[in-house]
C-alpha cells in the first residue's frame, strides 16, 4: 500500500493553488463518496462531532444545499448563518465574524463573498479550515472540481480534449477555476464570448480566445456555458439580450454543427433562452443535473479530506 496522502493545506481556496496530485486525490475520493451517497442510508460517522458553518454573503441554492448535504453524509453538525439577521448587518467585519465563530468551536467555515480574496483573508485569521464557495471574480473551486469530475465520468480523461467555455468570462469565477484545473489535467481550453465580456490578458492563463462560437463548436468535446451575471455588471456590456443569444447562445440549430458526442454543461442557474435554449438544456447532450448530483459527491470528498478523513493512493 502506498503512503497515506492528504491535502497540503487546512483550507481549499482555489484550484490555482492545488497541485495536480491534490486535484486527482479529491476527484478519486469523490468517486468513493458518490458510492456512499447512493446507499439506502447515505451516512458515515467520519466527521461525527465536527462543526461546520456556512457563511454566505451572496445568494446560493446549489452550492449551499450541497455542502449541507455533504456535511450530513459525514455526520457533521452544520449551521447556516443568515447574514440579514446576524451581526454582519450591524457592521461586523469578516475577520471579527470569523474569530467569533472559531471560539465557539467551529471546525470549518464555508464562505461565499462578493469580494475576491475574502476566503483567503478569513483563512489567514483563523485556525479552522476555510473553504471558498465563490469569491468575487476570483474562483469557485468546488464548482470547477465538480465540472471536471463530470467530464471525467463522461469521457474518462480530459487530456487533449477541447473544452469551450462560452459566455461571461470577465465576471466568471467558475471560468477561472475550470481553467486552472483543466490546464493541469492537460485539456485544450478555448474561451468564447463578446470582447466586452473577455478579461484582458486572459491568454496568459494558457487559453485560446475566440469571439466566434460557430468557429469553435465543430470540434469541441465539452461546451461549458456560463450564466450572464447581470448582478455583477456595472453597465451594459452588450447591445441586447437578443443579440447575445443570437451570437453566443446554444440552440438546436447551432448544435447541429457540433460533434454527436459533445457534452453540454452549465453551472446554473440557467437563463433559458439567453445562454441556452430549453431544447438544448433539456436535450440529450446536457449533463446539467448530473453536475448538481456530482457537486454533493465532490463537496463530501473535500470535507472528508480537510477535516480528518484519510485515504490511500
Describe this entry's structure for a reader.
There is one protein chain. This protein is an alpha/beta fold. It contains eleven helices and eleven strands. The protein starts with a strand and ends with a strand.
Give a quick summary of the entry.
The chain has 313 residues and is an alpha/beta fold.
Secondary-structure blueprint:
Blueprint (H helix, E strand, L loop, with lengths): L3 E2 L14 H18 L13 E6 L5 H12 L3 E5 L12 H10 L4 E6 L4 H7 L4 E7 L5 H15 L6 E5 L6 H12 L3 E5 L15 E3 L2 H4 L5 E4 L15 H8 L3 H4 L7 E3 L12 H4 L6 H19 L4 E2 L1
Parallel strand pairs: 2-3, 2-4, 4-5, 6-7, 6-9, 7-8, 9-10
Antiparallel strand pairs: 1-11
Helix pairs in contact: 1-5, 1-11, 2-11, 5-6, 5-11
Features:
alpha/beta, Rossmann fold, four-stranded parallel β-sheet, 11 helices, 36% helix
The first-to-last residue Cα distance is 8 Å
Strand order of the largest sheet: 8-7-6-9-10
Instruction: Count up the helices.
Output: 11
Measured as a percent range, the helix fraction is: 25-40%
Task: Provide the low-confidence segments as ranges.
Answer: none
Number of domains: 2
Strand and helix order: EHEHEHEHEHEHEEHEHHEHHE
The averaged pLDDT comes out at 91
Which structural class best describes the helix and strand composition? alpha/beta
User: For this structure, what is the CATH homologous superfamily of the largest domain?
Assistant: Aspartate/ornithine carbamoyltransferase
Amino acid at each position: 500500500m502506498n503512503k497515506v496522502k492528504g491535502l497540503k493545506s487546512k483550507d481549499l481556496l482555489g484550484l490555482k493553488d492545488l497541485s495536480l496530485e491534490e486535484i486527482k486525490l479529491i476527484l478519486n475520493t469523490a468517486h468513493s463518496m458518490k458510492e456512499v451517497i447512493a446507499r439506502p442510508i447515505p451516512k458515515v460517522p467520519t466527521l461525527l462531532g465536527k462543526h461546520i458553518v456556512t457563511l454566505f454573503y451572496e445568494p446560493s441554492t446549489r452550492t449551499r444545499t450541497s455542502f449541507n448535504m455533504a456535511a450530513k453524509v459525514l455526520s457533521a453538525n452544520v449551521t447556516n448563518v443568515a447574514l440579514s439577521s446576524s451581526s454582519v448587518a450591524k457592521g461586523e467585519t469578516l475577520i471579527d465574524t470569523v474569530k467569533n465563530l472559531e471560539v465557539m468551536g467551529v471546525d470549518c467555515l464555508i464562505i461565499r463573498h462578493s469580494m475576491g480574496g475574502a476566503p483567503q483573508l478569513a483563512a489567514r485569521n483563523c485556525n479552522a479550515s476555510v473553504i471558498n464557495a465563490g469569491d468575487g471574480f476570483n474562483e469557485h473551486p468546488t464548482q470547477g472540481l465538480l465540472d471536471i469530475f463530470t467530464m471525467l465520468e463522461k469521457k474518462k480523461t480530459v487530456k487533449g480534449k477541447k473544452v469551450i467555455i462560452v459566455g461571461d468570462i470577465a465576471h466568471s469565477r467558475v471560468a477561472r477555476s475550470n481553467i486552472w484545473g483543466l490546464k493541469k489535467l492537460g485539456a485544450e481550453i478555448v474561451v468564447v464570448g463578446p470582447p466586452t465580456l473577455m478579461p484582458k490578458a486572459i491568454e496568459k492563463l494558457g487559453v485560446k480566445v475566440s469571439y466566434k462560437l460557430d468557429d469553435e463548436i465543430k470540434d469541441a468535446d465539452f461546451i461549458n456555458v456560463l450564466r450572464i451575471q447581470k448582478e455583477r455588471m456595472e453597465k451594459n456590456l452588450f447591445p441586447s439580450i437578443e443579440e447575445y443569444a443570437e451570437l453566443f447562445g446554444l440552440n438546436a440549430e447551432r448544435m447541429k454543427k457540433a460533434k454527436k458526442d459533445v457534452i453540454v454543461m452549465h453551472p446554473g442557474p440557467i437563463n433559458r433562452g439567453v445562454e441556452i435554449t430549453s431544447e438544448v438544456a433539456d436535450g440529450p447532450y446536457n449533463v446539467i443535473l448530473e453536475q448538481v448530483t456530482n457537486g454533493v459527491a465532490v463537496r463530501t470528498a473535500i470535507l472528508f479530506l480537510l477535516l480528518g478523513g484519510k485515504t490511500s493512493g
